[in-house]
Design brief:
Blueprint: H1 2-14, H2 22-32, H3 34-54, E1 61-65, E2 68-72, H4 79-91, E3 95-97, E4 100-103, E5 106-110, E6 121-126, E7 135-145, E8 152-157, E9 160-165, E10 173-176, E11 179-187, E12 194-200, E13 206-210, E14 214-218, E15 239-246, E16 252-258, E17 266-270, H5 282-294, H6 298-310, E18 315-317, E19 320-321, E20 324-325, H7 329-338, H8 346-353, H9 367-379, E21 384-385, E22 388-389, H10 395-406, E23 411-413, H11 420-433, H12 437-443, E24 452-457, H13 462-473, E25 482-485, E26 503-509, H14 510-516, H15 520-526, E27 533-538, H16 540-543, E28 550-558, H17 563-578, H18 591-611, E29 619-620, H19 635-638, E30 647-648, E31 659-660, H20 664-677, H21 683-689, H22 695-701, H23 708-713, H24 718-724, H25 729-743, E32 745-754, H26 755-761, E33 763-768, H27 779-783, H28 808-819, E34 826-831, H29 841-855, E35 865-867, H30 878-889, E36 896-900, E37 907-911, E38 917-919, H31 922-932, E39 940-944, H32 957-964, E40 971-977, H33 982-989, E41 999-1004, E42 1019-1020, H34 1025-1040, H35 1043-1057, E43 1063-1064, H36 1070-1075, H37 1079-1095, ...
Parallel strand pairs: 23-33, 24-26, 24-27, 25-26, 27-33, 34-41, 35-39, 35-40, 36-39, 40-41, 46-49
Antiparallel strand pairs: 1-2, 3-4, 4-5, 6-7, 7-8, 7-14, 8-9, 9-10, 10-11, 11-12, 12-13, 13-17, 15-16, 15-18, 19-20, 21-22, 28-32, 29-30, 31-44, 32-43, 34-42, 36-37, 37-38, 45-46, 45-47, 48-49, 48-50, 50-51
C-alpha cells in the first residue's frame, strides 16, 4: 500500500496539485477513516494503472529539498542515480529557487519541465605534479554539473563539497569547502609511499578521500598479472571483522561482516612535515585499508592494518575457501608480516618502525623527563603553520599531567579551557600505553599494576574523546600488542579478557559504563581483575552529580489499573492542578494514600511552577521531533504509551532517549499537566481512539456541546474541538488520560548501578573545570580497610560554605583561587524575567537581542555568541534561529551561524543567505581568515545549545587569539534564567576558551528590583553579590547532596559488602506498595538489610559515619553541625533516610528532622525531585516496532531450547503444509499456561488459561523465566507424532481447566460496577503482537502475529477444536461458532475482552467490560441486531454499540433537554 501510495502521489504532484490543495486534504481525510481506506486504495491503484498505460516510464527520483522530500519524474531514469540522489540530498542541504534545485547558490537541476532532465556526470583528475605513481588518474562518478556552465562541477564526498572549475580548458581549479587544492601524487614516507591525494595550494598538508564513487586507474605495466599481483579476489572481501550490534531483544551481540560491508566515505587529513597517519575513528581505517588495496600500495596496506588490528575485536582472513586460494602473493606476505607469523624482515621493520613512537625506550626515565618526551612527540601530531606547530603543550599542562599521575587526590581541578580533552587526555593515554616504571607505579594507586584503562565522558563528548584516543594512541610501540576499543561492550566478546599483561583502552560514556556493569557476563570478567583497571573520568563533577548518579536497567509489565482507580487519579490530578481541595475519595480502600497523593501533587505543581520559570518546562512527551538530535534508535521512546507519558528532559533540558522518572506518581501527574496545557500533542491518539467513545460517556460529558456523530465520526482534531468548544476539554482530557494510564507500563524487575559503585570498586582519576562534588572514599581506602578520616577526593580549599561566614576580601581570595588563569572575567547580570512573558521561543530570542542592543552601539553588534544554558530553544531548529538572526540583523551583519549537529556532535555552520550547512573545519576556518581576516568573528554567530554546555570545545578559538590578538568570542550571552547551579553557569561561560578577553551577559531570573540588586554594566565577576550567592549556594548543595544521593551511598556500601557492582531493587513499584498498604513491611525489611550489611561491617559502617560527619560539619544549622554521631544515632538516621526515600517518614520533632532536612538539600518540602536514567537505546535498524526495549536478560543459556529435524530437500519439504515439519514444530502448543487470569463478577469465579505455541516462545514477547525444565521437557519429548502431541495437549488442558473452574455460568452481582480481575501469573511482556485461538471457555492458545489464519487452520491438527481466532486489536480473523452472545463462547464472549484488557490494553476491551457490568441488556441487544457487515467482534464498536444506543429512548430525552 505504501508503494502504491507513493506511485499515486507522484502523479498528483505531476498534475500540478499543491500539497495544500483540497484534493490532498480530501485524500488525507478519507485515508484516516477505516471505512474509506479500502476505497482510497482502489482509487490509487486505478490512478496508477491509468498513468502506467499512458506512459512508458513511471520511475521517479526522490530528493530532499528545502527540508522536504520531492518526487521528480525524469526523462531518463537510472536506478543508480535514484539511489544516489536519495542519499545525497539527505546528507547535503539542497533548496529550490525559481524552479531550480540549487546548492550553495549554484543551480544543479532545472525543474521547470514536466519531466526534467536529471543527469549525473563523471570527472577525471590527472596529477598536477611531475611525480608519477602507479595510479594514472582518479575518476569521480555521481558528479553534479552546474547549470548553464559546461565546466563547473560539484562533487559530494564524506560531508565535503569539491567545486571543480575548468573555464579555459587549460587551467582547472579545485576547491574543498572553498579552499583551493590541487590533485597530486605525493611521496609521504617509506611506509605510506605514493598516494594520489589532494594537496592544499597554500600549504603542504594533504587530504585523502575514500568513497565508492572514486575509481583509481592503476597502471598495469611491468606486472605479470593485473589482478592484484596474481589474486583473483578482492582482498577486502576476504577479510572479516566481528562487529558489535544490538539485536531485537536489545542484547549486545557480535556479528561477522566482510570489510566491504563496512565501507563508508571518509576524509583523512595528513599534516606536513611529519605525515603521521591519524584517524578519528575505526571506520576511517577500514576505508583507508580499501584505498590501499585499490591503489596497489602494499606498504600503506601494512601500516593501516597495524592500526586496524589495534582497534578491532577480531579480524579473520579467508585465505582459502575449499580448494580456492583467495589470498595470495605479496598481500598474503603483508598480512603474515603484520601478524608476525613469518621470518623476521629487518628491511620492513626499519620502514615501519619509523611510523611508531617507541615509548618503551623511556621505561626507566624519570617522570618529568618522560613527560617532556611525550610533549615533544605530541607536537608532531599537529598542523604546522606560521613556522610552528599549532598545539604545543604548555608548562602548566605538563605540571597538571604530572599532578594527575602522581597526586594523592584522585580527582583534579583544572580551570575551564586548560586543554583537558585536547591535550591532557591523549597524553595520559600515551603514558598508560608506555612501560614507564614511575608512571605505572603511580597509576597503581597502591594496588596492582594497571593493564586496562576506561575513559568515561558525558554522552555528548564520546565522539570527541574517541577521536583524541584514536588520533594519538594507535601509532605507539611498534609490534607491541595492545587494543583500543570504542565500546565497553567489547567485553562481551570471548577474545577480550582482562587477565594477562596486554594493555587495553575502552572509551565510553558514563551511563553506558554503568549499564555494562549490570550484565553478569561483564561483571564476571571485571570483578576479579578490577584492581588492574584504571578509570579516567572527564567532567567528573557531572559523573558524580547528585541527580545523575543512578542508572537502572529494567524489565516492565502492564499495570492493573481498573476504572475506579483511573477515575481517582484523574480527580486527584485535576484538584491539585486547579488548587481545589482533595476530591471525594470515600469509596477508596485506602483513603490515606489518596490524601497523601493529593498533597504530593500540590507540591509537584508548586515545584514545576517555581522551577520552570522559562517558557519551556523541564518535562514533556517524546516524539520524532523532540528526539531529532538522537542518532540512536528512538522507536522505543515514541511508540505506544512511551510517546504519551511525561518524561524528563535530561539535566540540560534536552530530550534524551531512555529517560524516565523513577517516581511513577510524578509521571502520572505531569502527564495530566501536559494533557491539560498542550492537548494538541495528543491529536493523533484521539483520532485513533475517538471511535470507542461510548454514547453514555457522550451523554455525561458532551451532550450540550457536541453532536455525537461529530465527536465519534468527525475529522476535526482534538485541539480544534477544544478550541471551538472549551467546555469539552475536561471530558476529553479524562477520556485520554485514562487510556494513557491504562497503557502505562510499570517495573517488573530492576538492576541499578550508580556512580558511587564505580568510585568504590575502581581506582579512579578524574578532572573537571567545575570541581564541586560530594566526598567519597577511594578504592584504595577501602582496599586497605582504613577507618581514619576520608581524604578529600578533590582539592576543596576554594570552597565557600554558608557556615564559613567569610568577609568580602576572603571570599574574593577563594574565588580567585577557583578562577585560576581566568582571573579577569567581566560579567553583567541581566534580568530575564521577560522570558516568562514570551509567547514563543523566537519571540524570546528577539527580546534578548533587543535588550542587548539597548545597552550598546546601534551600528555594531556587541555580541557574537549565545549559550542556551536553560534550554529555552530546545523546540526550535537552527534554521529557526538563523531566520531570526537574518530578520533582526539583516543579511550582511552575520554570514554564518555556528551550531553543533545534534545527531553526531560535529561542528557546523549554516549560511545566513542560503541553506548550505557545512562543516566548521580547517578548510572553512581558513576560508574565513582569507576572506575576512580579523573581522571573521563579526561574521559568525556562535549558537551553543544546551546539550553542549558541558565540556564542548568550539574549535579555533586559541588559534584565532594567537594570530589576531583578540578573542573569537567578542561577547557571550549566557541564558541561565532558572538555572541556579553555578557550576553549570561557569561551564556555559567556559565555552569561550578566552574568558579573560570575552565579556559576558548572564540572563538570570529574579534579579533587580526588590529581589536581588545587581550593578549595571560589566564588572569583575568575583565582586558581584549575585556571584557570591550562587557560588556559596553551589558549595552548600554539592556537599549536602539530596536524599537520593545519600540513599545511593548506602546502596553502594551494601553492594560493596555483597561484592556486587549492581543492586537488584526489591521495592520496585513504590506507589503500588503504598496503595496496597504493603510498603511498611518492605521498608522495614529493607532497613534491616542495610543495617545488617552496612552498619554490621566495620569498613562500610566507618565510611558511612565519616561521610555524614563531613556533610554535617558544613551545615549552617548548629543542631546539625554540633551533634555528635553515636552508634545509636547513626542507626536511627540510616533508618530515617530509607523511610524518607520512600516518602513514609513522619516528622519526629527532634534533631533527626534537622538531619533529614539538611540531607534533602534545597528541597525544603522533603519531596525529592528525581528521575532515573533508564536503559539507553542503541543504534539499530529496528523493523519490529513492538520491541520491548527494557527487556533484561530475556534468554539465558539455561532457558534456551533447541529442536532439530533433518530433511533431504527443504524446499520440497515445505510445499505441502501437512508435511512441513518446521511449521508443525512451531505450531506445537505448550500445556503449561503462560498466562492465568481469574475473574469474578461478584457471584462466581472463573479462570482463563492461555497456552503458547512453540513459535510464540521463539519471540521477544515472553519472559525468560517461563522456560522452565517442565516446559523444555514437553518439547524435548516430542517424538514426531503431531496428532498424539495435540491429543495429549487437549487432555492436559481440559483436565487442568476442570480442576480450576468452579462455575460454568457467569453470574453478575448487580451491586458491583467493575469485575475483579486478578492475574495469577503472566510471562508475556507488555504490548505483544499475537493471534489468539479460542478452543473453549477458559482455554486459549496464543501464537505469533498471523501464525493462525483462515488458510492455515484447514490443515491444523486442532482445526476441529478451533472456534475462533482474534488478534491483539480485537479483529476476528476466523469464526466457527456462529454464536452472537456476550454469555456464549465466541467472538463476543466477555473472556475475549478480559484477555485483551490484560494483554494489549485496548480501549474497546474496557468498554465491553463496563457495558457487561452496567448495561448488559444494551450490549446483548446490540449484538443480536448487528448484521456484521463491518466485521465481527466488538472492535466494530461504533457500528455495533453506538448505533444501537443512539436509538434508545434516552436519546430522545437528551435531545429535548438540549433544545
Amino acid at each position: 500500500e505504501e508503494l502504491i501510495f507513493e506511485c499515486s502521489y507522484k502523479f498528483i504532484v505531476n498534475k500540478n496539485f499543491s500539497v495544500q490543495s483540497r484534493q490532498f486534504k480530501l485524500i488525507r481525510i478519507l485515508n484516516s477513516d477505516p471505512d474509506f481506506q479500502s476505497y482510497v486504495l482502489l482509487v490509487k491503484i486505478y490512478m496508477s494503472l491509468c498513468q502506467i498505460n499512458k506512459s512508458s516510464e513511471v520511475d521517479y527520483y526522490k530528493v530532499r529539498c528545502d527540508g522536504e522530500f520531492r518526487i521528480i519524474i525524469p526523462q531518463n531514469y537510472s536506478k543508480a542515480t535514484s539511489k544516489y540522489l536519495d542519499e545525497a540530498t539527505q546528507l547535503y542541504t539542497f533548496s529550490e529557487r525559481d524552479n531550480f534545485m540549487i546548492y550553495d547558490d549554484l543551480p544543479v537541476f532545472d525543474l521547470r519541465p514536466q519531466q526534467p532532465e536529471i543527469n549525473l556526470h563523471k570527472v577525471r583528475f590527472d596529477s598536477a605534479t611531475d611525480i608519477q605513481s602507479m595510479v594514472k588518474y582518479i575518476e569521480f562518478s555521481n558528479v553534479f554539473q552546474v547549470i548553464d556552465t559546461e565546466e563547473k562541477f560539484l562533487i559530494f564526498v564524506a560531508d565535503n563539497v569539491l567545486l571543480v572549475e575548468n573555464s579555459n580548458r587549460e587551467e582547472m581549479t579545485i576547491r574543498i569547502n572553498k579552499i583551493r587544492v590541487e590533485m597530486a601524487a605525493i611521496f609521504f614516507n617509506e611506509a605510506i609511499s605514493f598516494i594520489p591525494c589532494f594537496k592544499y595550494a597554500e600549504s603542504e598538508d594533504v587530504v585523502l578521500f575514500t568513497s565508492r564513487n572514486i575509481h583509481y586507474q592503476v597502471s598495469n605495466a611491468g606486472q605479470f598479472c593485473s589482478d592484484y599481483y596474481g589474486m583473483k579476489h578482492d582482498l577486502i572481501e576476504c577479510i572479516n571483522s566481528e562487529e558489535l550490534f544490538v539485536d531485537l531483544n536489545d542484547e549486545h551481540v557480535f556479528k561477522t561482516y566482510k570489510l566491504t560491508e563496512l565501507l563508508t566515505e571518509s576524509k583523512t587529513v595528513i599534516y606536513f612535515p611529519d605525515y603521521l597517519l591519524q584517524v578519528p575513528d575505526r571506520k576511517h581505517l577500514i576505508n583507508l585499508l580499501d584505498l590501499a588495496v585499490r591503489v596497489r600500495n602494499i606498504s600503506f596496506f601494512i601500516l593501516v592494518l597495524f592500526y586496524l588490528r589495534r582497534g578491532s575485536v577480531a579480524l579473520e582472513y579467508l585465505e582459502r575457501e575449499g580448494n580456492v586460494r583467495k589470498i595470495a602473493g605479496p598481500w598474503k606476505e603483508a598480512i603474515l608480516y603484520v601478524l608476525n607469523r613469518m621470518k623476521p624482515n629487518p628491511h620492513y621493520d626499519d620502514i615501519f618502525e619509523k611510523q611508531f613512537f617507541n615509548l618503551n625506550e623511556y621505561k626507566d626515565e624519570p617522570l618529568d623527563d618522560f613527560i617532556d618526551t611525550l610533549c615533544k612527540n605530541f607536537t608532531r601530531y599537529q598542523r604546522f603553520t606560521d613556522g610552528e606547530y599549532q598545539i604545543i603543550p604548555t608548562l602548566k599542562q605538563k605540571i597538571f599531567l604530572k599532578r594527575i599521575i602522581c597526586a594523592e587526590n584522585p580527582l583534579m581541578f583544572s580551570e575551564v579551557g586548560s586543554g583537558k580533552t585536547k591535550v591532557i587526555l591523549p597524553l595520559l593515554c600515551q603514558t598508560f600505553l608506555s612501560d614507564n616504571i614511575e608512571a605505572h607505579k603511580n597509576f597503581a594507586r597502591g594496588g596492582k599494576i594497571k593493564n586496562t584503562l576506561v575513559i568515561l565522558v558525558p554522552e555528548h563528548l564520546v565522539s570527541d574523546a574517541r577521536t583524541q584516543v584514536y588520533r594519538y594512541c594507535l601509532n605507539l610501540n611498534f609490534r607491541q600488542e595492545y587494543r583500543v576499543y570504542d565500546d565497553i561492550f567489547a567485553l562481551m566478546h570471548r577474545n577480550v579478557k582482562l587477565e594477562g599483561s596486554m594493555k587495553q583502552i575502552f572509551v565510553t560514556s558514563f551511563n553506558t559504563f554503568k549499564k555494562s556493569l549490570t550484565y553478569d557476563q561483564i561483571c564476571a570478567k571485571v570483578w576479579p581483575y578490577r584492581e588492574k583497571v584504571l578509570v579516567v573520568a572527564d567532567e567528573v563533577d557531572d559523573f558524580l552529580d547528585r541527580n545523575k548518579l543512578v542508572f537502572n536497567i529494567c524489565s516492565n509489565k502492564n499495570n492493573t489499573f481498573d476504572r475506579p482507580m483511573l477515575d481517582l487519579f484523574f480527580e486527584v490530578s485535576r484538584a491539585a492542578y486547579n488548587g481545589f481541595p482533595s476530591p471525594n475519595i470515600s469509596a477508596s480502600k485506602n483513603i490515606e494514600y489518596w490524601e497523601h497523593l493529593h498533597n504530593k501533587f500540590i507540591a509537584i505543581q508548586t515545584e514545576i511552577q517555581d522551577a520552570s520559570r522559562s517558557i519551556n518546562k523541564s518535562f514533556g512527551i517524546f516524539n520524532e521531533y523532540t528526539l531529532r538530535h538522537c542518532s540512536t534508535n528512538i522507536v522505543h521512546d515514541i511508540e505506544g504509551y512511551k510517546g504519551l507519558i511525561a518524561r524528563p528532559y535530561e539535566s540540560v533540558n534536552r530530550a534524551m532517549p531512555g529517560s524516565y522518572y523513577s517516581d511513577v506518581e510524578r509521571t502520572i501527574y505531569l502527564t495530566y499537566v501536559i494533557l491539560t496545557e498542550d492537548i494538541a500533542k495528543y491529536d493523533e491518539l484521539f483520532q485513533g481512539e475517538r471511535k470507542f467513545i461510548s454514547f453514555e460517556y457522550w451523554n455525561t460529558h458532551f451532550i450540550h456541546q457536541l453532536d455525537f456523530d461529530d465527536l465519534v465520526y468527525g475529522h476535526e482534531k482534538l485541539s480544534e474541538i477544544v478550541a471551538k468548544h472549551p467546555k469539552t476539554k475536561d471530558g476529553l482530557a479524562r477520556y485520554l488520560y485514562e487510556i494513557i494510564l491504562r497503557r502505562m507500563e510499570i517495573r517488573d524487575k530492576s538492576r541499578s548501578v550508580n556512580s558511587i559503585d564505580v568510585i568504590f570498586n575502581f581506582d579512579c582519576i578524574g578532572f573537571t573545570g567545575t570541581p564541586f562534588l560530594d566526598n567519597y572514599p577511594t578504592f584504595d581506602y577501602i582496599r586497605r580497610g582504613r577507618k581514619d578520616k576520608i581524604p578529600d577526593l578533590i582539592d576543596r580549599s576554594f570552597y565557600v560554605n554558608t557556615s564559613d561566614e567569610l568577609s568580602v576580601s576572603d571570599f574574593e581570595e577563594r574565588f580567585k583561587q577557583f578562577q585560576g588563569q581566568n582571573n579577569n572575567v567581566l560579567v553583567e547580570y541581566v534580568s530575564s524575567d521577560f522570558i516568562s512573558k514570551s509567547s514563543n521561543e523566537m519571540e524570546t530570542l528577539k527580546s534578548i537581542f533587543l535588550k542587548e542592543e539597548l545597552e550598546g552601539d546601534k551600528n555594531t553588534t556587541g555580541f557574537n555568541a549565545l549559550v542556551d544554558l536553560c534550554g529555552i530553544f530546545k523546540q526550535s531548529t537552527i534554521h529557526d534561529v538563523r531566520d531570526l538572526i537574518k530578520e533582526h540583523f539583516g543579511s550582511e551583519r552575520f554570514k554564518f551561524v555556528y551550531h553543533i549537529d545534534p545527531a553526531d556532535n560535529r561542528d557546523r555552520v549554516l549560511c545566513i543567505n542560503s541553506e548550505n550547512d557545512a562543516q566548521y573545519d580547517e578548510e572553512f576556518y581558513n576560508f574565513m581568515c582569507n576572506t575576512y581576516g580579523a573581522n571573521l568573528r563579526d561574521k559568525i554567530f556562535f549558537f551553543v545549545d544546551n546539550r553542549n554546555v558541558i565540556g564542548k570545545d568550539i574549535p579555533f578559538q586559541l588559534v584565532y587569539q594567537r594570530h589576531y590578538r583578540q578573542p573569537l568570542f567578542k561577547k557571550s550571552l549566557v541564558l541561565a534564567h532558572d538555572v541556579d547551579d553555578f557550576s553549570r553557569i561557569w561551564q556555559a561561560m567556559g565555552r569561550s576558551r578566552t574568558m579573560n578577553g570575552t565579556t559576558f551577559s548572564i540572563f538570570k531570573s529574579g534579579i533587580g528590583g526588590n529581589v536581588i540588586e545587581v550593578s549595571r554594566g560589566t564588572h569583575d565577576i568575583k565582586k558581584q553579590a549575585l556571584t557570591r550567592k550562587l557560588y556559596v549556594h553551589n558549595c552548600d548543595c554539592k556537599m549536602a547532596g539530596n536524599i537520593s544521593s545519600i540513599y545511593l551511598t548506602l546502596i553502594a556500601l551494601y553492594n560493596l559488602s555483597n561484592k556486587s557492582f549492581y543492586y537488584c531493587d526489591e521495592i520496585v513499584n513504590t506507589f503500588l506498595e503504598k496503595m496496597e498498604k504493603t510498603i511498611g513491611k518492605k521498608i522495614s525489611k529493607h532497613k534491616e538489610q542495610l543495617v545488617r550489611h552496612v552498619l554490621g561491617s566495620s569498613v562500610p559502617a566507618q565510611i558511612f559515619c565519616h561521610i555524614l560527619i563531613d556533610k554535617f560539619k558544613r551545615s549552617s544549622n548548629p543542631s546539625v553541625a554540633k551533634q555528635s554521631l553515636t552508634k545509636k544515632i547513626v542507626d536511627t538516621l540510616l533508618r530515617d533516610i530509607v523511610t524518607q526515600k520512600f516518602e513514609q517518614r513522619k516528622p519526629s520533632g527532634d534533631f533527626y528532622d534537622d538531619f533529614i532536612v539538611f540531607l534533602s538539600g534545597e528541597q525544603g518540602n522533603l519531596m525529592e525531585i528525581s528521575y532515573t536514567k533508564q536503559q539507553q537505546k542503541q543504534k539499530q535498524k529496528q523493523q519490529n516496532k513492538n520491541q520491548n526495549s527494557d527487556a533484561m536478560g530475556l534468554f539465558n543459556k539455561k532457558n534456551q531450547l533447541q529442536l532439530t529435524f533433518s530433511t533431504e530437500n527443504y524446499f520440497e519439504h515445505t510445499k505441502l503444509a501437512e508435511e512441513d515439519s518446521s511449521k508443525m514444530l512451531l505450531n506445537l502448543p505448550c500445556s503449561v499456561p503462560i498466562v492465568t487470569i481469574v475473574y469474578d463478577f461478584g457471584a462466581s469465579q472463573h479462570t482463563i488459561n492461555i497456552y503458547p505455541t512453540l513459535q510464540f516462545l521463539y519471540s521477544h514477547h515472553i519472559q525468560g523465566n517461563y522456560m522452565t525444565s517442565e516446559v523444555q521437557k514437553l518439547f524435548r519429548e516430542f517424538d514426531g507424532e503431531v496428532l498424539n502431541f495435540h491429543a495429549r495437549f487437549l487432555e492436559s488442558v481440559r483436565h487442568h481447566h476442570q480442576q480450576r473452574t468452579t462455575a460454568q455460568k457467569i453470574i453478575i452481582d448487580p451491586t458491583i460496577s467493575q469485575p475483579e480481575i486478578k492475574v495469577r501469573h503472566n510471562y508475556i511482556l507488555p504490548n505483544p503482537q499475537y493471534t489468539l485461538v479460542g478452543l473453549e471457555k477458559g482455554v486459549y492458545v496464543i501464537g505469533m502475529k498471523e501464525q493462525f489464519n483462515h488458510q492455515d487452520i484447514q490443515c491444523h491438527p486442532l482445526r476441529d477444536e478451533i472456534k475462533y481466532i482474534a488478534d491483539e486489536m480485537g479483529f476476528i480473523l476466523h469464526d466457527n461458532t456462529l454464536v452472537r452472545s456476550v454469555d456464549s463462547f465466541g467472538p463476543y464472549f466477555i473472556e475475549q475482552y478480559i484477555t485483551m484488557e490484560v494483554l494489549s490494553k485496548q480501549e474497546v476491551a474496557q468498554n465491553v467490560i463496563d457495558y457487561y457490568c452496567n448495561h448488559k441488556e444494551t450490549l446483548e441487544r446490540a449484538v443480536q441486531t448487528y448484521d456484521e457487515k463491518q466485521g465481527k467482534g466488538f472492535v466494530c464498536w461504533r457500528f455495533l454499540i453506538n448505533e444501537t444506543t443512539k436509538a434508545a429512548p434516552i436519546v430522545q430525552q437528551a435531545v429535548m433537554e438540549r433544545n
